[in-house]
Amino acid sequence: GLLLLGGRDALGEGGYAGTAVSDALPLELTGGVGETPTLATVQATPSSAGRGHAALQLAASDSLSRAKWVAMPALTSVNRLGRPKPGATVLLTGVEEGDGAARERPLLAYQRFGRGKTMVFAAQDSWLWQMDASVAVDDMTHETFWRQMLRWLVSDVPDRVEAVMPEESGEGEGISLSATVADSGFLRANGATVTGVMTSPSGRAQAVTLEWAVERDGAYRTTFVPDESGVHTVQLQAVVGGDTVRSEPGFVRVAQPTAEFFGAEMRPGLLRRIAEETGGRYYPADQALDVAQDMVYSASGATVVDRKDLWDMPVVLLLLLATLGGEWVLRRRRGLA
Fold it and tell me: Which end of the chain is more exposed for a tag (fewer CB within 10 A), N or C?
């Protein structure tokens, strides 16, 4: 996760416009280095997307949370920010009072980038939510906001070793186990040594080794067959360079397949479509006796291949004898026999 905060030397005013960092940000940067900051006092107001967002829940209920945001002290922003990018979501809007009309600017926005998230919080003094004279000393709103926002920002951070397996498998069937391995920079790593330990419900451990899947970087896989029913625990370990990293434990349930017990009802629409596409005919249960009457035999018949030795064919035998006889007569005429 990447979080950029507002300030006199931050965002566009800090020289980030036009860089790779700005490409990842959810807001366009319009300010530049050396430009005079534009101080604006804004009241943080949750947007329609932010009202139900986990990072902005400051109280036990939605109504209390809305009341908290209304009572929050105003903040200041000094950065020139452009419009949100197409994939961005604005969570907090800064309502700026001036010239007799309320103007809005994005204050807190995020977007997904790669496998993580990027956020921009354009206020430069969120500490006012703790230190303002109107805030009680024991008020935990400031701490709650930052704790929840940072926790949400990193909630989907991938592990360096991630195991992928089915949730359920039938008895006696092979379970496909795959893993994605990354180095310390979270780049896909090839050539790692990936092993795993599968622990059965009875506590017996079985070692497995994953081989590199050459068609994709950082991908490893193997197949193992459990020998007992129940919930099996799988944990992987990868040695990447000099690092040894472990995955979170995964679980797979081994039991008799139950798919046949679900969705077993007759689906006439599907049967009619199959009949139309294959040149057949659909018969409901009450017309099952009509199948024998409507059955038509094809005039093309069936092709049967009958293989015979040449000696079993009289024509071929006579042709061979005539050839041998003709050769003998020809040799006699020329005095060769």
Answer: C
pLDDT by residue (tens digit) across 194-220?
999 999 999 899 899 999 988 889 999
Q: Give mean pLDDT, residues 96-118.
A: 82
**Mean pLDDT of all residues in 263-275:** 86
Gap between the Cα atoms of 306 and 197, Å rounded:
58
d(CA 103, CA 6): 19
Q: Are strands 168-170 and 250-255 parallel, antiparallel or unpaired?
A: parallel
Handedness of CA 146, 147, 153, 157 (dihedral sign): positive
Closest residue by Cα to residue 224 from 250, 245, 246 = 250
Selection from 144, 130, 35 nearest residue 81 by Cα: 35
Q: What is the DSSP letter of 147?
A: H
Find out whether 62 and 51 touch, Cβ atoms under 8 Å.
yes
Per-chain mean pLDDT for the chain: 87
